[in-house]
Amino acid sequence: MKILTTCLGLAGLLFLSACNSAPPATAKEIQTERTKDLAISLMSEKGELAMGQNRFIVAFRSTSNNQPVDVGTVTVGSSMAMPGMAPMTAPIELEPGGSPGQYAAKGDFSMSGAWKFEVRWDGPAGKGVATFNTNVR
Questions:
Q1: C-beta separation of 98 from 127 below 8 A
Q2: Contact, 61 vs 39, CB < 8 A?
Q3: How far, in Å, CA of 63 to CA of 88, rounded?
Q4: 3-state SS class at 6
Q5: What is the pTM of this model?
């Protein structure tokens, strides 16, 4: 009986963990930047980022046919300029999303204001970088 209870408890924890890592069910565009061949979008459930914990999506689509594009390895960096000090940073955790060309992101922004996001990719669609300047509310 103890083993069954332990197994059910672990299964519940795994289920909750999986639920917490899922991207928002309905995502609204925060901002989109275009390169020659790609449209890279930041999206969230509310269409904005807020101070504190955030879950959002980084999505890659072809500019020619608007179809999702697998870009391979993706990294996202974020920083906020601080006059007279080093920039503030917020680490972004990133993992492949449920669909091709989508990556689930999680970040904790300790301050509201103007943040810079740098998205880099390297894979089947080549190498590239896109910069976003967006507000965290």
A1: no
A2: yes
A3: 33
A4: helix
A5: 0.79
Pairing state between β 73-80 and 88-89: antiparallel
As to burial, measured by CB atoms within 10 angstroms (0-12 exposed, 13-18 middle, 19+ buried), residue 59 is buried
* 18-55 pLDDT per residue, tens: 334 344 457 899 999 999 899 999 999 999 999 999 99
**Are 44 and 24 in contact, with CB atoms under 8 Å apart?**
yes
- Burial label for 92, CB within 10 Å (0-12, 13-18, 19+), is buried
| CA–CA separation, 120 and 16 (whole Å) | 30
Contact 112, 125 (CB under 8 A): no
